[in-house]
From TrEMBL:
<dbReference type="GO" id="GO:0005737">
    <property type="term" value="C:cytoplasm"/>
</dbReference>
<dbReference type="InterPro" id="IPR005921">
    <property type="entry name" value="HutH"/>
</dbReference>
<dbReference type="InterPro" id="IPR024083">
    <property type="entry name" value="Fumarase/histidase_N"/>
</dbReference>
<dbReference type="InterPro" id="IPR001106">
    <property type="entry name" value="Aromatic_Lyase"/>
</dbReference>
<dbReference type="GO" id="GO:0045548">
    <property type="term" value="F:phenylalanine ammonia-lyase activity"/>
</dbReference>
<keyword id="KW-0369">Histidine metabolism</keyword>
<protein>
    <recommendedName>
        <fullName>Histidine ammonia-lyase</fullName>
        <ecNumber>4.3.1.3</ecNumber>
    </recommendedName>
</protein>
<comment type="similarity">
    <text>Belongs to the PAL/histidase family.</text>
</comment>
<dbReference type="InterPro" id="IPR008948">
    <property type="entry name" value="L-Aspartase-like"/>
</dbReference>
<dbReference type="GO" id="GO:0004397">
    <property type="term" value="F:histidine ammonia-lyase activity"/>
</dbReference>
<dbReference type="InterPro" id="IPR022313">
    <property type="entry name" value="Phe/His_NH3-lyase_AS"/>
</dbReference>
<dbReference type="GO" id="GO:0019557">
    <property type="term" value="P:L-histidine catabolic process to glutamate and formate"/>
</dbReference>
<dbReference type="GO" id="GO:0051289">
    <property type="term" value="P:protein homotetramerization"/>
</dbReference>
<dbReference type="GO" id="GO:0009800">
    <property type="term" value="P:cinnamic acid biosynthetic process"/>
</dbReference>
<dbReference type="Pfam" id="PF00221">
    <property type="entry name" value="Lyase_aromatic"/>
</dbReference>
<keyword id="KW-0963">Cytoplasm</keyword>
<keyword id="KW-0456">Lyase</keyword>
């Protein structure tokens, strides 16, 4: 099994995906263990002094004015975890919790938090044992970190609360730890706070969203090309010289992808006998590279933010290399929240233009010779009429999900935490939006492939044929009389989600950008 080594200098996107989705093992480097020990010495020295230090010998948030004596500090750290594990609502997905735990471990291992090496090792042990704390949908405002979600993870480290075992069964965390020979941690000064105070949940979801969107943007280039082909559109607008004079990198990549898919098509530029030659196609076809390209460039910015955050040590207070322990505001999730919201906007627009192409394929007045709704016997058969309804409902929800969460703030902790990022909420709605985008593209794929097959006597591009053959092999049926449509659409959704579109095309086109 793949092993991810956690050091002091952050982590990578690939490592997050490997741990969250690939169940990679986690190992602490010698460098990280040394840094943990050094930082702990600093915290122990401060704990022995009479002067109050936030998180070490004081209360938290609005209660930071109270000095806590040595006899109550272990209780203080336990209490912050127990009281902050206040999440409600449905369980968060296993991959999100694993990303959350791994990214918190990454920050702990930086040597800037003051957590003891044995606590960090226990965090790694839980991941390696496949023990996943139960984390709930609601409880984070995205400032002072993802407090409630991280608290539920810290609670499991203490052997309390509930967790999912490697077999998928939810049981008391203490039982699961005992079964795997893991001793619950007894938290000391600052450790409870250090386990809760980070942007790890929203960051983990951002990293996974970027991985999903990279695949979906390539898929969208293919489905746009298939729709263009089915509509007998022109590929002249995809020529590189036209995109070079508006040098947005994503736009050039999207156009190049579409052009590669359409290479060798006998449908492109073919006009119906009763139609005048079209000088240009509708915007939803002609401007596909501009919309998909803008989304790609948005992703590039979001990836830059994610990489910076992956290199960060987010905690408050932090242990600095010179031995100082300083309060700060680095836990504020604004940088991550903004790009999460931006990606939701881009995803909604990509879905919107895909739905417009689908609608065009189904409308006999705009489809240039295709049967109404791509039906076998229109009137007796309704064809894909209601598939477009479903697609439209998905797009409409995505537009609602594109309303920024980060533009909101609600004061908390008796006005001590009077401005928050709502980054967790931005991440949660982006995950929903990505699932919807996958379905929207699946419907366009279903319609466009059927439409191409209905262009009798015309030969599609080799890449198009490869997609159609792969889709049919996956159990998604082609043209014919009306049938129970939901299973076909579900199979198309799975095909898109599993990367089937890109996998079918790239052996013909070469790697897509």
């Amino acid at each position: 099994m793949h092993t991810v080594v956690v050091g002091t200098s952050g982590t990578t996107v690939a490592d997050v995906i490997a741990v969250a989705r690939g169940n990679a093992r986690v190992e602490l480097s010698t460098e990280a263990l040394d840094a943990l020990a050094r930082a702990r010495e600093t915290v122990d020295a401060l704990a022995a002094k009479p002067e109050p230090v936030y998180g070490v010998s004081t209360g938290f948030g609005a209660l930071a004015t109270r000095h806590i004596g040595t006899e109550l500090r272990a209780q203080l750290q336990r209490n912050i975890v127990r009281s902050h594990a206040a999440g409600m609502g449905p369980r968060v997905e296993r991959e999100v919790v694993r990303a959350l735990m791994f990214l918190r471990l990454k920050t702990v291992a930086s040597g800037h938090t003051g957590v003891r090496p044995q606590v960090a090792q226990t965090m790694a042990d839980l991941l390696n044992a496949g023990i996943t704390p139960v984390v709930h949908e609601y409880g984070s405002l995205g400032c002072s970190g993802d407090l409630a979600p991280l608290s539920h993870c810290a609670l499991a480290l203490m052997g309390e609360g509930d967790a999912e075992g490697p077999d998928g069964t939810v049981r008391p965390a203490g039982e699961l730890l005992a079964e795997h020979g893991i001793a619950p941690v007894e938290l000391r000064e600052k450790e409870g706070l250090a386990l809760l105070n980070g942007t790890d949940g929203m960051l983990g979801m951002l990293v996974m969203a970027l991985a999903d969107l990279e695949k979906l943007y390539k898929t969208a280039d293919v489905t746009a090309a298939l729709s263009l082909e089915a509509l007998l559109g022109t590929d002249k607008v995809l020529r590189p010289e036209l995109h070079a004079i508006r040098p947005h990198p994503g736009q050039g990549d999207a156009a190049a992808n579409m052009l590669a898919v359409l290479e060798g098509s006998g449908l492109v530029g073919h006009f119906q006998a009763d139609e005048a030659p079209r000088v240009q196609d509708a915007y939803s076809v002609r401007c596909a590279p501009q919309v998909a390209g803008a989304g790609r460039d948005t992703m590039a910015h979001a990836r830059l933010v994610a990489e910076r955050e992956l290199a960060a040590a987010v905690d408050n207070p932090v242990v600095l290399p010179d031995g100082r322990v300083e309060s700060n505001g680095n836990f504020h999730g604004a940088p991550v929240a903004y790009v999460l919201d931006f990606l939701a906007v881009a995803a909604a627009d990509l879905a919107s233009i895909a739905e417009r192409r689908t609608d065009r394929l189904l409308d006999k007045n705009r489809s240039h010779g295709l049967p109404p709704f791509l039906a076998d016997d229109a009137g007796v058969d309704s064809g894909l009429m209601i598939a477009q309804y479903t697609q439209a409902a998905l797009v409409s929800e995505m537009k609602r999900l594109a309303v920024p969460a980060s533009a909101d703030s609600i004061p908390s902790s008796a006005m001590q935490e009077d401005h928050v990022s709502m980054g967790w909420s931005a991440a949660r709605k982006l995950r929903t939006a990505i699932g919807n985008l996958n379905r929207v593209l699946a419907v366009e794929l279903y319609a466009a492939t059927r439409a191409i097959e209905l262009r009798h006597g015309l030969t599609p591009a080799p890449a198009s044929r490869a997609v159609i053959e792969a889709l049919r092999a996956a159990g998604v049926r082609g043209p014919g009389p009306d049938r129970f449509l939901a299973p076909d659409l579900e199979a198309a959704d799975v095909f898109v989600r599993d990367g089937g579109v890109v996998a079918a095309v790239e052996p013909v086109t070469g790697p897509l950008a």
